[in-house]
């Protein structure tokens, strides 16, 4: 089934130095840009992460320090990547929990101002898990009836993710061929920040999603315990989480002044 698109959508996959969204870095990014008319553009970029790639990570994706020593850093390619995805919705496999937060962190480190909050995010893994509870290789076998060759290479995983989503639309009549619907369906929570440390509750209020204040209004916590804001800023949280929390704090301070 051909995707019904209002905007271009970029399917992308990252290979990284590890799984910590706060500190690990991208070593390869592949993205497949699909236009509303069905045209496609694909690009794969190897990136020097400016840190050692742990052997355990290299064993998974096959990229070693020597492979990226002469590659550009993310900062050197960030503006081009931002330009490529400008105005596009984004899709991936486990992208809402990992790839989107990691990419957002890399843009922040590179000093590239890109507003990703206006994008729609389709996570094909969430759709798969809600429907079948398997992995990408199993999803590709199940939906496309083919074995996924070169699994854990960004290019193969990106293409497989795109093919799986189209097959999911063919298989499940309850799925609407609409990116806004798919973005909503493939999200377990309404994240305020990409890491999901803050989420929207049923009333659209920002609440903390961790720790001693889990489920409590962010604005209320900032008023009652202003030191909590400083603790988060000085702790091991993502740059995006800190930036979003700061925006909420400034908004609440402005509201107090105007009252």
UniProtKB/TrEMBL annotation:
Residue intervals of the Exonuclease domain: 8-174
CDD domains linked: DEDDh
Signal peptide (residue range): none
Any GO MF annotation of the entry: nucleic acid binding
Gene Ontology CC: one annotated term: cytosol
Gene Ontology biological-process entries: DNA replication proofreading
One Pfam family linked to the record: RNase_T
Listed SUPFAM superfamilies: Ribonuclease H-like
Gene3D superfamilies, alphabetized: Ribonuclease H-like superfamily/Ribonuclease H (3.30.420.10)
UniProt protein name: DNA polymerase III subunit epsilon
Source organism of the structure: Bacteroides faecalis
């Amino acid at each position: 089934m051909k995707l019904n698109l209002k905007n271009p959508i970029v399917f992308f996959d990252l290979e990284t130095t590890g799984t910590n969204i706060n500190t690990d870095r991208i070593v390869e990014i592949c993205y497949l840009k699909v236009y509303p008319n069905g045209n496609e553009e694909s690009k794969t970029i190897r990136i020097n992460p400016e840190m050692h790639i742990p052997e355990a990570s290299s064993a998974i994706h096959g990229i070693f320090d020597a492979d990226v020593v002469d590659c550009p850093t993310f900062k050197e390619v960030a503006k081009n990547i931002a330009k490529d995805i400008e105005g596009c919705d984004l899709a991936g496999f486990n992208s809402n929990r990992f790839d989107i937060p990691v990419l957002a962190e890399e843009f922040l480190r590179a000093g590239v101002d890109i507003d990703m909050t206006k994008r729609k995010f389709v996570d094909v893994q969430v759709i798969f898990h809600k429907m079948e509870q398997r992995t990408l290789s199993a999803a590709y076998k199940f939906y496309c009836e083919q074995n996924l060759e070169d699994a854990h290479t960004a290019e193969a995983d990106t293409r497989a993710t795109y093919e799986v989503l189209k097959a999911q639309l063919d298989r499940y009549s309850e799925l609407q061929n609409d990116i806004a619907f798919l973005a909503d369906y493939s999200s377990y929570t309404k994240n305020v920040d990409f890491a999901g440390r803050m989420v929207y509750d049923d009333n659209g209020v920002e609440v903390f999603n961790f720790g001693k204040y889990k489920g409590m209004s962010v604005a209320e916590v900032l008023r009652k315990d202003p030191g909590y804001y400083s603790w988060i800023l000085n702790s091991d949280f993502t740059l995006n989480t800190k930036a979003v929390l700061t925006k909420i704090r400034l908004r609440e301070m402005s509201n107090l002044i105007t009252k």
